[in-house]
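A.,

Following up on our hallway conversation. Structure tokens first:
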């Protein structure tokens, strides 16, 4: 919802002190949130979260997609580097990097080659 062009245009029209004040960001949004949300929710710091990627996309499928894909074929990613990354020892230590490459591979298939994924 925050990417709607009308909201973006409105945000760019705001004076700076409603966007950032005393190193606090999203001033106006926080003021609006304070009216409807519990105080501890509004003041809470950002925190990351993880997604159980392997529950939706197996490591073997990701590896196969990368190993035989556009990135390697078009020399966008080095075959040697991909091989090391997908090697048995490093594979268990770099799941996020493998996921990033697999997503990039899907993007390349869709937008560079026009292949259906």
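Then the amino acids I'd put at each of the 117 positions:
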């Amino acid at each position: 919802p925050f990417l709607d062009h009308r909201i973006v245009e409105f945000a760019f029209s705001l004076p700076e002190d409603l966007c950032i004040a005393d190193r606090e960001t999203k001033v106006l949004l926080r003021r609006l949130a304070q009216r409807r949300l519990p105080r501890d929710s509004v003041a809470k710091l950002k925190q990351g979260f993880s997604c159980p990627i392997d529950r939706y996309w197996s490591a073997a499928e990701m590896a196969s997609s990368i190993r035989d894909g556009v990135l390697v074929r078009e020399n966008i990613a080095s075959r040697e580097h991909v091989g090391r990354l997908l090697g048995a020892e490093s594979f268990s230590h770099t799941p996020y990097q493998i996921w990033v490459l697999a997503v990039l591979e899907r993007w390349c298939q869709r937008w560079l080659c026009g292949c259906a994924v």
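The beta strands are 20-21, 24-25. Curious whether your intuition agrees with the design.

B.
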